[in-house]
Write a structure and sequence with these properties.
Elements: E1 2-8, E2 14-20, H1 24-33, E3 37-43, H2 47-56, H3 61-76, H4 81-91, H5 95-109, H6 114-119, H7 127-139, H8 142-199, H9 205-240, H10 242-254, H11 259-279, H12 284-294, H13 298-312, H14 317-321, H15 329-341, H16 344-400
Antiparallel strand pairs: 1-2, 1-3
Helix pairs in contact: 3-4, 3-8, 4-5, 7-8, 8-9, 8-11, 8-16, 9-10, 9-16, 10-11, 11-12, 11-16, 12-13, 15-16
């Protein structure tokens, strides 16, 4: 963080400015090393400024991936934890992440463990992340742990990014479709409808429907827009509630086209999470509990919470998961083989790779199918509307000739 200072040199010359340091004591120490006599040091910033920065700034998943890789590299070079986090805080391009790292530096100076210091910042470091770090601290393998985390987060980032990118194109095409429809109904159709109605000829039913929709949009467009904004606001409000989140999560895995894709994403995440934590020596019950926190779907979260309780009571993971239709039997059987052979971690790694390939294939297939379907749908929609209006105009032109 930055500190404002008032100081004087040994010649009595006044100096003011800013110095960056993890805390006030280190800021004073840094100024004294410059040969300054410190008069006053205060932290820069007001509550309003801090709120404004925190509101707009965000630590992205990619930032945490890079951070984990940098920590592992510094630990491999035998740099102390305190010095490593100080270096990373000073050189971080993300200002919010830099401030978080400085808070961690302060905690480390106070004797707090790395995992406990990170646990104070759940918006950056998930429970999965902090538990992995705690396991590394207990086993003395923090370097390996941070490399594990970097690899895992990199895989999850790539998986999530690919899924999101697959949904961008259809969303863009649908958006363009609605924009084109609105422009046609509010700007083109009204002018053509005047010609048709003034001709006095009998208007086909489908043309009356198009003209009626156009009149509603022109005359009551502002009310329709207000209603749409209110609907979007309600959907956002509902999505943030527990019941709404459950409905959306259920829809994600049951939707006809996107459901199978989301199911494979969640299954890949579950297998990858469990493999990473078991490889780091975290007990299976705790690993299942942590996975339930980071799976990002309430349906699978409930399954994993129940499974952790049953495993704690003496059941095997495969027995617990076999009761649910949303868990494929192939996954259950593979886990069962891993439990019987003592190679559960390796089986989970294989499953994670398998479902990641399945996601990649599903995304490529989806994108290749959506593009022509959307283009055809857009063309048909515009074409049908134009035909319904232009046909009566051609009839008028034929009658005049």
């Amino acid at each position: 963080m930055n500190y404002k200072y008032d100081a004087v040199t040994d010649k009595g010359e006044k100096k003011t400015g800013l110095v960056e340091a993890p805390n006030q004591d280190l800021a004073v120490s840094a100024l004294q090393k410059r040969g300054l006599i410190v008069l006053k040091v205060t932290e820069e910033g007001t509550p309003g400024n801090i709120f404004q920065l925190s509101f707009f700034e965000k630590v992205k998943s990619k930032d945490v991936v890079i951070l984990s890789r940098q920590i592992a590299t510094l630990f491999e070079a035998n740099v102390s934890a305190l010095k490593a986090f100080q270096l990373l805080a000073t050189n971080s391009e993300n200002k919010l992440l830099a401030r978080k790292l400085l808070r961690i530096v302060e905690d480390l100076q106070a004797g707090v463990a790395i995992s406990d210091a990170m646990n104070k910042h759940p918006d950056v470091f998930s429970s999965f992340y902090t538990n992995m770090v705690r396991s590394g601290e207990e086993s003395g393998n923090l370097t390996i742990t941070f490399n594990y985390l970097a690899d895992y987060l990199d895989r999850q980032y790539a998986l999530t990014s690919k899924t999101k990118n697959a949904l961008i194109y259809p969303g863009f095409v649908i958006g363009i479709f609605f924009v084109v429809m609105i422009l046609m109904f509010t700007m083109i159709i009204p002018k053509l409808s005047e010609i048709i109605l003034q001709s006095g000829q009998e208007v086909p039913v489908y043309t009356k429907i198009v003209i009626g929709i156009s009149n509603i949009m022109v005359n009551y467009g502002i009310f329709l827009l207000a209603g749409l904004i209110a609907l979007i606001g309600y959907i956002v409000y509902l999505a943030r509630s527990l019941r709404g989140k459950q409905m959306i999560d259920e829809l994600k895995i049951t939707a006809p086209i996107f459901g199978p894709l989301f199911r494979k994403v969640y299954l890949a995440r579950i297998a990858d999470n469990l493999d990473t934590m078991l490889s780091s020596g975290i007990p299976i019950v705790r690993a299942i509990q942590i996975t339930s926190d980071v799976v990002s779907n309430s349906k699978y979260q409930a399954i994993l919470i129940t499974a952790s309780e049953e495993v704690k009571a003496g059941a095997t993971l495969s027995q617990s998961l076999s009761k649910y239709e949303t868990i494929p039997q192939i996954l259950v059987q593979m886990i069962k083989v891993g439990e019987e052979t003592g190679a559960l971690g390796q089986i989970l790694k294989t499953l994670a790779k398998f479902y990641k390939r399945e996601v990649d294939d599903a995304v490529e297939t989806l994108v290749s199918l959506i593009e022509p379907v959307m283009i055809v749908a857009l063309g048909l929609g515009v074409g049908l509307i134009l035909v319904s209006v232009l046909m009566p105009i051609y009839s008028i032109a034929g009658g005049i000739s």
